[in-house]
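One record is set out below.
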Amino acid sequence: MNLTTRNCLWNEKNCPLKNIKKTNKNYSPNFYEDYIKDYFQTDLSKIKSKQCNKCGISINSRWFSNDVSYKIFNSVYGQHHRGWLNYYDFKNNNKSNTHKEIVKKISNIIKIKKYSEFNCPFQGNFFSYLAENYNPKNIKKLIALTEKRILLTQLADKNPKIFKKNFKLQSKINIQIKNLRKNNKKIIEKYLILDHSASCWGNGCISKGVNCRSVAQELFNLKVLNLYEINNKELKFDLFSLFNTLDHTAEPKKILDFALNSSKIVLVFNHADPKVTKQHLFSLQESFLNYLNKKKIYTFNISSTYNTTGKENMVFLCTKNTRIKNTIRKNIKNFF
């Protein structure tokens, strides 16, 4: 298994890394690490966390090479476990995660008409937006129709005679979905931005024969765009959210810069463990916000007001817009 030395993630020169002091938290491997060790028949002791004195993040300074990383996230354990758990919890129990509360509070600061998330479609607020627009009965219909429609196109191993039958069924489903969408209460233009990173679940993120991004695009009515094919000047968002996805890209600076340059407010929810778990390249620390502030990226740490957040996670808002910064500062105590 190949490990490579990672350069500074924020394009800084002479990035000063130091060993991390022992913490009170006992490190315990997670099941992802168990799968990695078993597949490659190796231990992961050479992957060690260090902290940067300049930006403050914790980083696994020697980490998987791109080809190994791609294999881990697409075949060794290709399904994003937490994302699909969220999906089935919503599908079976009509439960959406607690991100909706923070997004609602932000909507009291700015009007959200265009909204975007990054890479993983089942980590954030798309479920909540769906629940706002449809009653539970129609949500169940929409989910069932979406899954069935995608499966009807999987015909490679089928008798050619079934093609026409499936096409007719799919055509009926398209009409049913269109009719359901006619009763949509509230229209928010929703985007999912992808960078197809080797360190994120993607092609192999499948459950019961369907890919998470395929389901999400149909179910949430998303516009899905490739980060590297976007003209940044033509696309603007009110809110851009990164829910535990900033640390699942090889180029976090690129996506954070894109989000900041194209959005009024960026919401970041990210791991903040001093000792980085082996399946992550890095985690954020509170000192990272000071690093951003020095670069005139205005940050607001709201971790303490987010009731699902412990020391292992950090939640913050950031913006480059001075007017938006002043609006947040003026209203932050009322909403957070």
Notes: Residues 162-182 form the longest helix (21 residues).
